[in-house]
Amino acid sequence: MWRLAARVLLGTKVHPLTQRLLAGAANLQCCWWGTVRGTHTGYMSAGIWKVEAPDAEHLIRVQWEDGSESCYPCVWLRDNCQCPHCFLHSAKARKLLFEDLDVDIVAKKVTLTDRKKVSITWPDEHTSEYEAEWLKKRCFSEAARAEMQEDLFLPEHQYWGSDLQLPKMPFEEIIYDDESAYKWLCTLKKMGVVLLTGAAARQGELVKLGHRIGFLRLTFYGPTWQVQDKADANNVAYTTGKLCFHTDYPVLQHPPGVQFLHCIKQTATGGESEIVDGFHAANKLKHQNPQAYQILTSTAVDYTDVGVDYCDFAVQGKQRIIDVDYRGQAIRINFNNATRDTVFDIPAEEVRPFYAALKEFSDLLNSTEHKFTYKLKPEAKGHVPVLPHSSSSSSRPLTPPLQPLVYSASPLSCTG
Ligand SMILES: [Zn+2]
């Protein structure tokens, strides 16, 4: 079952939902918030006691053997007919054209077979069949929807602060063992950061890791790049100065979901990394200053990035510092002080309140209560830190840093 789950997980689409702010000094940062469409094991086999199509109602009512009841709108049932004419099973995708769907459709005839299958004949004599278990999973009750969403999005989060017990896993196990790969991804999803140990101290290991779960996303800095001190640096990461907590590439419409950094060579002094849980800090801000939180979740901030590297690039973008979902829950942090534009497209009177709100958030990120500091060790074989949740930021070693191979990749965002 583990192998099946891992195969499902590794072979399926995962898209980033959110990000955490990670501040890191040079080592590894990776963040992502993914969602995995996996197997559903929590549902008991479902038997149907009775099915009926109430007159004058555009729905089908199913009574289950356990005494519960589910209602399914006819338009949804017709829309989701699983027959080969309406659904392409090889692609698990709908063939039925939306323009051919009648939103006022009602069932002409409904039959139940062996308490396991519902058949519906539509007014045009088209017939649809639905397995009981398929229907049960898609019940529209609040409880059933919540269970399905939990399966689909693995919503468990573990917020952390300076007391973080950094999750560690052997790199080789991830590469060769499905169960370990599955555990790694689940931990990454839950914690936002995982340290992989024992990778060979050479370039190419991150490519191997990226291909293990998807593909690496190309950026203006090439498929991969080296973080090291460079003359005429085209990125503040290529200097020896300290970086403040940041997430990468907020200028992009789709910022990286996961970033891999590989410490191939560590500096003797300096080289520490700092990471911070941006969601945790965002929740703290929401509690202690709702107005500041409201400003950071609603103000569109201009970002810019111009330079020459893998190619010439000149990009403008807008992001809110804290992205929230439909429930108001933080799902991504978009903060990079280096690429925040001098252009700021808000009224003058709103500027200072914005700065004050951002300062309060920044203070939370930098508090000793929240930030976690560590130093990667190449050791004999090297380290690959993986920060899943989201965002990364920060820091920089005060001396010429290690020379980590940095991957900005969204191997899990394969929805594209
Ligand atoms: Zn059909």
Automatic annotation (TrEMBL):
InterPro entries: AlphaKG_dependent_hydroxylases, GBBH-like_N, GBBH-like_N_sf, TauD-like_sf, TauD/TfdA-like. Its cofactor is Fe(2+); L-ascorbate. Residues 163-377 form the TauD/TfdA-like domain. GO terms for biological process: carnitine biosynthetic process. Keywords: Carnitine biosynthesis, Dioxygenase, Iron, Metal-binding, Oxidoreductase. Residues 56-135 form the Gamma-butyrobetaine hydroxylase-like N-terminal domain. CDD domains: CAS_like. One of its GO terms (molecular function) is metal ion binding. SUPFAM superfamilies: Clavaminate synthase-like. Pfam families: GBBH-like_N, TauD. The keyword Isomerase does not apply. Pathway: Amine and polyamine biosynthesis; carnitine biosynthesis. Belongs to the gamma-BBH/TMLD family. This is Gamma-butyrobetaine hydroxylase 1.
